[in-house]
Amino acid sequence: MKRDRYLEQWAAWLPAALAWLDQEPPNYRESEGTIPTPQRPALGIQRVNGPLRVALLSSSAAYDTATQAPYNESCVIGDSSWRVFPYDLPDDRIDFAHEHFNRDPARQDHELVLPRRALRATGVETTAHAISWSGYTMDWPGLLHQTIPQMVAQVKADGANAALLVPV
Amino acid sequence: MTASLVVDALETAGIPTVVVGNQRVPLQGLPRVVLTRYERGKNFGEAGDVAEHQRIATVAVDLLRNATAPALVDLGAVTQSR
Hints:
The complex is a heterodimer of chains A (168) and B (82). With 168 residues, chain A is an alpha/beta fold.
């Protein structure tokens, strides 16, 4: 079995993080500020040849209220799951399950964190789906090993050659 | 913080990215960033301000089309309506 060094680092960090999060109010500064970070790749600039076909991804924890479960807002370490729904899903089918930002403005105008119309108005082609995850999660192993690979696979399956991300 | 992990994975998979955010520190070092100065949860401006939403989206798409080096465009100086 190949050892997962990052998972081991994260597991060693978790008890202290849970103690910080158990404080009233939860000490997010200490817990988020100390989470082990995986080694990052060296990223250059990749150019897109030809017309843009752009995927839209938002960490606003958006979900389809008619067909999908909301994210788990009551879990102290957040929710590392993700959702995909039709790009043109009506606004009244979308809500945001993320307690760490004031959702009232976004509920009034989804474009603030899920700019579907604004992106399309630039003239680019957009993919058939929008993708969302919850920006508040400390389950980074789950995010790294499951959620992100699935989101990337969805972006590729949708034929995107570029992506716009909106972190909340 | 999690957005940078998603960017890393997308870029590694050959998908160029642009991020529209409002916190500088967690976005530093990413290939293309548009920084707006609206408060958290209002990345594209105020509700109903369609022109501002489209202006920000246009800056982001322009970065995707034209950036030849890592770039962070700070729109704070001209985003005064909040």
